[in-house]
Hints:
mainly alpha; two-stranded antiparallel sheet; 75% helix
Amino acid sequence: MELERSCPQCGRKIPWGQADCPFCSGKGRGYLWSLRRDWFLLLTFIFLVLMFVVTSFAARTYRNVERGFAVQWYVRGEDDLHEGRAEMALADFRTALSYSHDNEQYELRLAEALTEAGNTAGARAEARTYLLGLLDRQPGNATVNLELARLAARDHLIDDAVRYYHQAIYGEWDLDAVARRRNARLELVEFLLDEGQKDSARAELIALAADLPPDPALQTRVGTLLLRVGGYDDALKLFTEALRLNPLLAAALAGAGECYFHAADYEQAERDFARAVQQDPHLTQAAALRETAQAVLKLDPFNRRLSNMERGRRAATDFSLAMAHLQDCAAQRGIDLKANGSDPLQTLHGMALDLQPHAQQSTLSRDAEVLSEVMDAAFAMEQASAHACGEPQGQDLALLLIAREQGGAHP
């Protein structure tokens, strides 16, 4: 028995017992439409997936192209900055940032370039804006803090500069942290010295000196800075250590000589200055201080190793030098020493005229009391002349140093 029959209209096979053909009656058409809709949705989904893949690839390609442009402009900016073309470098870094908006390295480099090359308030303000934005995201970034410190230093904002320098010193460095912290502190010291903050600078230098490596050049540099703040004892320790490592280091010899000079040890100072100038004849300050030290050693009548004759000779010379200096100073200020007046130079000149007959080598060699009186007069004249006409040079400076040493004061 046949289980199927043919539809007289469409010829499709239908079950024998089914009266109507589902295809001709519309039921088949619904089934086909359902089947076509499923295929349409599937094809649409496949198309959308393909479009997503293509779009993602295009976006990634575009980003790579942008990144490549950013790198090119960044490298170009580095080259321009290295060649001294500051304005061009700034334009290059800005262009690099336009292609890579959130690149913190580019922002930092632009801010550094603005700090280095920006001589206007607007440039510094722009640099500060970038740096403060970076600092919000990276509060411990030592490089960012260092650049902010430099901006504050350029604007003479002492408190802000010190704060940012300290944050840089104790901040996070990517490479060579110890050396870069040390350099930041040295930069802070130079800034404080330029601003006249000697006490603060000395405190920073003492902290720095406590943790220096065995590097003669670095020890000498810190010692030289200590000389500028009057830290002679601490400086001498650094110079001594530097000379232990390098006995012929001219700058360390000159620094040690200056420490001894200010301690009134003129013999040791003269020896160190002599060695320093021998190593480097261009050390003009060391040469000048050596000459002063030599003059002190030749004029000082209180050296216990001297004979009475030599002591008298020096005292007579000192008195003559002091009187001549006083007369020159009076002439410079237009003071008539022969007239009766209340000016200290006139008073001292009158006293000196009274002592002049006794200020002879023969008398001074025999009478220690007269020698003391004559030297007191010489010291008084030198000090009064220095007060009225400024610090002297040469032998007058040497005599003034002897006066200060005898009075318990050092230059």
